[in-house]
Amino acid sequence: MSTSPVPLIPPTIPVDNIKTGVAPSASTWTKMALLANHCHGRGGTLIPAYRPGNTIASGSNGTYNYFVQGSHYAVAQYWVVRAHSVSSTVDATVTLSAPAGGGTPRTYRVGSDMKATEPMFCVDPTFLGVPADDLSLNIATADAGIIVDQIACYEIPRTVLGPTEGVDVDSLRGNSPIFEQEAVGARDSVSIHGAAEAMRFYRGVNAPLFLPNRMLWCWSVPTADALTTTSNVVQKATHQPVPFICKRTYRKERSPSADVRVYAYAKVDANMGHVSYRYGDNENVSTAPWFNMQVTGTSYAWYTDLPMTTAGAIEDLDRADGRYYDTGAAVLKWSEFEIGFRRWTSANIHVAAVCVWDEGG
Amino acid sequence: MASSEYKGLIFDPNGGGAGTRAWNVRRDSPLAVDWVRSLANSWNHNADQVTQVAVNFTAVGVSAPGTRPSKTFTAANTYEHMISFGPFPWPIRHDLALMRPVYRLYGAVDNAAYTATFKPVFMINRDPLDPGLGLAYDELATSSTTEGPLTSGSATYLTITENNAYIRGIETVSSPESAIVDTAVAAQWLMCRLDIWVKATNAAATAYLSGCYLRAYVGT
Description:
The structure holds 2 protein chains of 2 kinds.
Chain A: H1 26-41, E1 45-50, E2 55-56, E3 61-68, E4 77-85, E5 92-97, E6 106-110, E7 120-124, E8 133-142, E9 146-155, E10 179-180, H2 191-203, E11 214-220, E12 227-229, E13 235-236, E14 242-244, E15 258-268, E16 273-280, E17 291-295, E18 301-304, E19 308-310, E20 324-326, E21 331-333, E22 335-343, E23 349-358
Antiparallel strand pairs in A: 1-9, 2-9, 3-8, 4-7, 4-9, 5-6, 5-8, 11-23, 12-23, 13-22, 14-22, 15-18, 15-19, 15-23, 16-17, 16-22, 20-21
Chain B: E1 5-6, H1 33-48, E2 53-58, E3 70-72, E4 80-89, E5 100-109, E6 116-124, E7 136-137, E8 140-142, E9 148-150, H2 165-172, H3 183-188, E10 191-200, E11 206-217
Antiparallel strand pairs in B: 2-11, 3-11, 4-10, 5-9, 5-11, 6-7, 6-8, 6-10
């Protein structure tokens, strides 16, 4: 039986019990190990729920692509899809496949009443690469066309972690020696070493992945429904500013900042186009300058460039909702970003997906 | 380094493995209490930082708002279901309460003579679809025909008044020993949902939802 369990409910480490002159108790160390395992193994949201809103005609299918950064301890993901039939008299047969063209397809029937339509689930057994990977979902329909109302994806929580993934709880129990053990693989998972080493891997110090990276916003549609423009002026793709709040890595950090990076799945018919982005920490995104990321390939591929580095979008843990406080105006404000695109030459640009990630400071 | 060697409260942090470990623990020195407290505080903070964005929908399109949910009505002043997001996993706070739902909606109505009221309802997925049975809700009215943020005074988060609701979910969910949780179990495992209901002062109105953001936050 594994000794690196992942508790469903995260224990709270009783910090007040750690006092000078008194040895930290085994129960404190055990809670620390369990909490470390919870943080590593509970999995995260890969794709926040969003509404593609595209139509898939009866007998057709569409593939949705995403750029994700998974926890390297998750071994599978599950998709949650909502859709409804475009026909008020004919239910649609919907088949989900993840990854697109693979996995174990799941089939459902959906009617036209959104209120009565149940969500659909599909497991993707793909082990995500480190540090990032391309995730895909295929939705096929028969009997009637559908409108896709929601797509979301989450890592399936682990119940136990492997010997090189979690902290060995048995090594921290009472009446046991505090010992060191030769590292298995690239990290230690035993005793106090393990509890501290788990922090090193969680926070990304000397590790390839910063585990708490998270998707802030995404939009993806099949390439047949990609946005396109003939304009050389940046066209806004997001018609409302997208609110966002980034995590605070260290509670008492004095000058926190976060890198918010945009990934776009795009192509051009020839030469070059731009996917553009800008942000504002003060609900002033409409006056911010655009940053234009080059798209140069004639086949769809993922593009990224310099991140938006923001200090104002870091969650303020002293605020009821974590939002940025504008000291000048003495008011809380939302941080927001916008996405746009344009062609730069005479050839059109096509954008099928955009994923925006909080990649820490 | 020798394996399984008992050294009491002291050990060499540079033994084995790769990389440099800049820890405040040294051979032949007692383990510093402030280091242990710092590590404990850091893990408590990490657990609260396991917050995530549950919903972030923005209408996307060129020149026009693009497809976004809209609602026509069968009667005036009666809430009707517009759209649901979820189910999504929802984190638990260090004090065993559910994390606070911070939200922002964007929308409009098609005629300034009408008022549309949006009602986001946050609920455990297994509860029935009813605007009155959620864990938390709010009501945001607008008469604007320009799509923009909907406000309800200064409220930006939904106040959960029934924290024991999640306990029901834990009691009924088994925790298999296998590393991969069955999707049916995952669907019940602390899954929440956001339903958007809307009503209008006139049945001829059309209401639009052009953005919806929901994030779990530890709160103060």
